[in-house]
Amino acid sequence: MAGARDDLLTAALAVFDRDGFEGATVAAIRERAGASNGSFFHFFGSKRELAGTLFLEVLRRYHIAMLDVIDPPPGAEEGIARLIRTHLAWVMDNRREANFLFEISRSEWAQDVRDAREARNATVAEGVEAWRAPLVASGELRPMQASLFFSQIIGPAQFVCRAWLSGRDPSDPRGHADELIACAVRALTAKGER
């Protein structure tokens, strides 16, 4: 049974990528998955429910990738570099998933999974904070609100990735890693205050 559910999620990702959420149909998703109408509705009550489930699953995989690179905890500069490089690599290696997270998450139906998304985001924030807090206490990282810290790491990298995903910039986002890391190190470490 889990195989059929996973097949539907995989098919949905491809159909959403090709047609967008509004253009995607349950019939197209079922056809791509080789699933019956009954099978679809056994697992999902609607296209919106399937999209919400897919969103949370993709977000979970992204968070795992991000947390894995700071366990065991690296130093400040190395951790910043790992998080930025991981974000860039994850987007490049998971283009459909990244596009789904960035574009589809702005849809009004995304509110259906808002609480679950916030819970997942809180879990990753706790993991990052477990790495960051001792480095702030030791003076290696500048003290600031956790959300501001994370935005300095992911925000610029995400901007570069969105430009690539949209086709505005065809260059590989990983080619900007060194500059993004240098900027983040200057903004976030005590070294940047010198």
What's this entry about, in short?
The protein has 194 residues and is mainly alpha-helical.
State the distance separating the first and last CA atoms.
58 Å
Assign the structural class, choosing from mainly alpha, mainly beta, alpha/beta, alpha+beta, or little secondary structure.
mainly alpha
At the first level of CATH, what is the class of the largest domain?
Answer: Mainly Alpha
Query: Biggest sheet: strands, sense, closure?
Result: none
Radius of gyration: 19 Å
Helix content: over 70%
Topology, number of strands: 0
Order of helices and strands: HHHHHHHHH
Question: At the third CATH level, what is the topology name of the largest domain?
Answer: Tetracycline Repressor, domain 2
Corresponding CATH superfamily of the largest domain: Tetracycline Repressor, domain 2
CATH architecture of the largest domain: Orthogonal Bundle
Low-confidence stretches: none
| Beta strand % | under 5%
Overall 3D geometry? elongated
